[in-house]
Design goal:
Largest sheet: 4 strands, parallel
Strand content: 5-15%
Shape: globular
Radius of gyration: 14 Å
Structural class: alpha/beta
Helix content: 25-40%
Number of helices: 4
Strand order of the largest sheet: 2-1-3-4
Length: about 140
């Protein structure tokens, strides 16, 4: 018997090519099937930022097969947590959702050296999010 996920999380940044992709990958890596994960952007890019792919590969997570996806109202509606990545992206608002904004530097146009601290900050925030989701299950 399969246990349903504790929560569903949507990560949003404009191009869905860097921060939101890294956050989604960390959440999948750290929480496994305990949490349903998706990411999207209001103006998706053509590919995931190569520096983000390289930075994540350094910590054993492969983003090379990921593709940016378009943000939809349905994605927001079906998520318990909607997390924007400090990019000023406007998400549709649905009552009862947990909205968060993580102000993070944009890795666009930067090399892997500049993306590493962004990656590490995202991991720290994802770990805190997992703890929040787990705590919500216990209450």
């Amino acid at each position: 018997m399969t246990t349903p996920p504790l929560a569903s999380v949507l990560f949003v940044c404009v191009h869905n090519a860097g921060r939101s992709q890294m956050a989604a990958a960390f959440l999948i890596h750290l929480a496994g099937d305990r949490v349903e994960v998706r990411s999207a952007g209001s103006a998706p890019g053509r590919e995931v930022n190569p520096a983000a792919v390289a930075a994540m590969a350094e910590v054993g997570i492969d983003l090379s097969a990921q593709r940016p996806k378009l943000l939809t109202a349905d994605a927001v509606r079906s998520s318990d947590y909607v997390i924007t990545m400090g990019c000023g992206d406007a998400c549709p608002y649905f009552p009862g959702k947990h909205y968060r904004d993580w102000p993070l530097d944009d890795p666009a146009g930067r090399g892997v050296e500049a993306v590493r601290p962004i990656r590490d900050a995202i991991r720290t925030r994802v770990e805190a999010l997992i703890a929040e989701i787990d705590a919500g299950r216990e209450s």
